[in-house]
Specification:
The chain is an alpha+beta fold. The protein is 37% helix and 18% strand. Strands 1, 2, 3, 4, 5, 6, 7, 8 and 9 form a 9-stranded mixed beta sheet that branches. It has a 5-stranded mixed beta sheet with strand order 10-11-14-12-13, with helices on both faces. A 4-stranded mixed beta sheet has the order 17-23-25-24. The longest helix is centred in the last third of the chain and has 22 residues. Bound molecules: adenosine-5'-diphosphate and magnesium ion. The site of magnesium ion has 4 residues, from helix 4.
Length: 765
């Protein structure tokens, strides 16, 4: 028997006793009889529960959409009035509901989606709790019309407070047969009619409608094979619609517009150990908006996750201009028993096991995809400073002179579609691959044709410097890299921890490996890595596209001017003894080059060091114009090969349209572009396949090496530090095969090891 009057059993009173005044004491004594606990009226309980689940019309609609999708519908039509407060109607063509289930349809915890209690923990069922319809019926007028395939009539049922209710007073509550097509129509009227305070909280029905359009739009993007439409009642127009056959890009286009649909790339990642698969569409670096759009689905349900959003935003930081944000559609499937959706009444947020690890994996995959070679990138020159005396914008406009208006529009242009060669099809995903993995023997030939990629040959139809290009050339070059791999260095680069930028001018950074600290000449390592990326991504480069394209001639002219200037500066105007001119090893340019043969020899001189462009060009009277002309002709002559193999595209008008993109998130300094192009003339061995690939890729690598940064350029240095840490050194880990050549020339120098340091400190103590 309880004795509530005893203070010992009423700790609350004990607590207050010292402060009790006689009057208050009387009062307290009166109050001391605790109020008896009564069970709330079931109806009130239900309304409270419903109010937690259905906070706004959009919550009800989301549940209804999910039910329709679960019922296998391929068409879902939604009609809304007053932001869903007056009317929410959803009509689907799914399985329908059995007549016999209608009486319990809206009872709490009735569901067809859980078979046993254990199912609750296996949330492939995504927390089906059988609460949605029950909740809606507690706080709105609910009508369900439904027909299954096997029923020869449709049934209409009205619900109130979880139970069948008569449509009109005095009528029977039983479902009534009526005409109707297969599927289910659910009509929700007067939401919150019996919780007026909540209803009053909605100030703007148009805000509610926008939320509805948002959620319908999410499912419309996600649900492949389902047509969606959503409109306001009495409104002729449709707020949103997609067809059932539209693919995901078309659906994104329909709902979010072409600006984003043109710039999305597909991505996917999975991990068995972590028990998840993720796929989606990402906007590339050409697209950015003020706020991130994240369409996130976990196990088929639209959810929110601030952790995932944060990770995505962080991943895009290096790809987008400051303040720019991406569009991301991400669908994650996680093994059901690792997910808990029940933490949040509206199931908007979910918890899952290994959340951090999974998010990290996804962020990494996004990062890789963004930088992946198949991504094309439009690049508008306005932000870049080309070298020379002119400021950037002047150069850009000068280079763009004569472009037609349509071409001057900096909008996206799809890259030319690449033919798929068998050679490429053997590589499932080249992005992560190092040369070592690409050299693994005997790649299965999907076509079953003997010999596989090694022997496949293909041709290009222009120029024909060599009759056929064999993939084995590239393989040989890759093999050479692999054969010079250095295992000790490999270990170092694989397991290093990036410490920081040490000297941006000398291009040195520090890394730690084990107990040792090293100084790394990142320029030298980049030179090697970009060459290797060139080999492994051969024919699969992404593009940096110039919009409008840049006149080759003008770029070459800029390079020549620069070159002349720097020569003059070096020699103080004196003419050094010219290096004897050797016969050019190129057969290019002479015939149609416009320059004299002598000039050709000079420009195409046998220069082995990349920087030794043309030493006797100090000669007064050196024909620079002829030289740039020859280089231009050479590049144009080889443009089909350059485009097909290296994504370096030159159009019919002799303009540079695109450059190969080697590493996502990293843009080579375009200040080096003119010099890079000029050097291609003499430094690439155009008439031998193997040498051509090799020398071209070496030049390309050189172009990609980060420039030394002059002291006092703090901004630039900061920028570089971020790129080094987040992109370049990470790429060293993933994409570099460190070769014995890197051992030479102090590329990596041990500067300290912990034991040594300890000893020093011990001594100094
Ligand atoms: P849950 O979705 O968690 O099972 P609901 O209250 O949302 O709970 O739905 C209860 C049940 O009603 C579902 O399990 C399903 O069997 C049935 N149902 C609801 N909506 C539809 C629909 N549009 N088509 C077919 N069946 C439906
Ligand atoms: Mg449901």
């Amino acid at each position: 028997m309880r004795n509530y009057a005893s203070p010992q059993q009423a700790p609350v009173r004990v607590h207050y006793r010292p402060r009790i005044t006689p009057h208050a004491s009387r009062h307290c004594t009166k109050m001391a009889t605790p109020q008896r606990i009564k069970a709330l009226d079931q109806n009130v309980v239900n309304k409270i529960a419903a109010g937690e689940i259905i906070v706004a019309p959009v919550n009800a609609l989301k549940e209804l959409i999910e039910n329709s999708v679960d019922a296998g519908s391929t068409s879902i039509e939604i009609v809304v009035k007053d932001g869903g407060l007056k009317l929410l109607q959803i009509t689907d063509n799914g399985s329908g509901i059995n007549r016999d289930d209608l009486p319990i349809l809206c009872e709490r915890f009735t569901t067809s989606k859980l078979k046993a209690f254990e199912d609750l923990t296996s949330i492939g069922t995504y927390g089906f709790r059988g609460e949605a319809l029950a909740s809606i019926s507690m706080i709105a007028h609910l009508t369900v019309t439904t027909k299954t395939k096997d029923s020869n009539t449709a049934w209409k049922a009205v619900y109130a407070d979880g139970k069948l209710a008569p449509p009109k007073p005095g009528q029977s509550a039983d479902p009534k047969p009526c005409a109707g097509r297969q599927g289910t129509q659910i009509t929700v009227q007067d939401l919150f009619y019996n919780t007026p305070s909540r209803r009053r909280a909605f100030r703007s029905t148009s805000d509610e409608y926008l939320k509805i359009l948002d959620v319908v739009g999410r499912y419309a993007v996600h649900c492949e094979g389902v047509a969606f439409s959503c409109r306001k009642q009495g409104d002729g127009g449709v707020g949103l619609s997609t067809t059932s056959t539209a693919n995901v890009v078309e659906r994104i286009r329909r709902i979010h517009g072409s600006a984003v649909a043109n710039e999305v790339v597909e991505f996917s990642v999975s991990n068995k150990a972590l028990g998840f698969k993720a796929k989606g569409m990402l906007s590339n670096a050409n697209y950015h908006v003020k706020k991130t759009t994240l369409l996130l689905f976990i196990n088929g349900r639209s959810v929110e996750s601030s952790a995932i959003k944060k990770a995505i935003d962080a991943t895009y930081l290096t790809f987008l201009p400051k303040g720019g944000h991406p569009f991301v559609y991400l669908s994650i499937e996680i093994e059901p028993d690792r997910v808990d959706v029940n933490v949040h009444p509206t199931k908007r947020e979910v918890n899952f096991l290994h959340e951090d690890e999974i998010i990290e994996k996804i962020a990494e995959a996004i990062q890789e995809q963004l930088a992946a070679v198949d991504t094309s990138r439009s690049y508008t020159l306005t932000q870049t400073v080309l070298p020379g005396t002119q400021p950037q914008s002047v150069v850009a406009s000068r280079v763009g002179q004569g472009r037609q208006q349509k071409d001057a529009n900096p909008s996206f242009k799809p890259p030319t579609t690449k033919k798929t060669y068998e050679n490429n099809t053997v590589r499932v995903d080249h992005r992560d691959q190092k040369i070592t993995s690409m050299l693994l023997p005997a790649v299965r030939d999907p076509g079953g044709v003997g010999g596989g990629a090694e022997t496949t040959e293909y041709e290009y139809d222009d120029g024909r410097e060599w009759e056929e290009v064999t993939y084995s050339t590239v393989k040989t070059l890759r093999k050479a890299v692999r054969e010079s791999a250095h295992s000790g260095l490999a270990e170092l680069f694989l397991g290093h921890i990036y410490v920081g930028l040490v000297d941006a001018h000398k291009r040195l950074a520090a890394v730690q490996h084990g107990v040792k600290l090293y100084l790394v000449d990142y320029a030298a390592v980049c030179y090697e890595m970009f060459y290797q990326i060139g080999l492994s991504d051969f024919r699969n480069f992404g593009q940096i596209r110039f919009n409008p394209p840049l006149s080759l001639r003008e770029l070459l002219q800029i390079a020549a001017d620069e070159e002349q200037e720097s020569r003059n500066a070096q020699t103080g105007g004196a003419t050094p003894a010219g290096r004897p001119s050797k016969p050019g090893r190129s057969d290019d340019g002479g015939e149609d080059g416009g320059g004299s043969r002598d000039d050709d020899d000079v420009v195409m001189g046998d220069s082995d060091t990349p920087l030794d462009l043309h030493s006797n060009s100090h000669d007064e009277g050196f024909n620079w114009e002829g030289a740039t002309q020859i280089v231009e002709n050479t590049l144009r002559k080889h443009r089909v090969m350059l485009r097909d193999y290296f994504s370096l595209e030159i159009n019919d008008d002799g303009e540079l349209v695109s450059l190969p993109l080697l590493l996502k998130g990293y843009m080579p300094s375009l200040g080096k572009l003119p010099a890079f192009l000029l050097r291609l003339g003499p430094n690439v061995v155009w008439n031998s396949e193997m040498e051509c690939f090799q020398t071209f890729l070496r030049e390309l690598a050189l172009f990609y090496v980060p420039e030394p940064i002059l002291p006092n350029s703090e901004e630039k240095e900061k920028e570089l530090a971020v790129i080094l840490e987040t992109v370049i050194f990470r790429a060293f880990r993933k994409r570099l095969v460190p070769t014995t050549e890197l051992l030479a020339g102090n590329t990596v120098t041990e500067i300290a090891n912990l034991k040594g340091l300890y000893r020093i400190f011990e001594r100094s103590c």
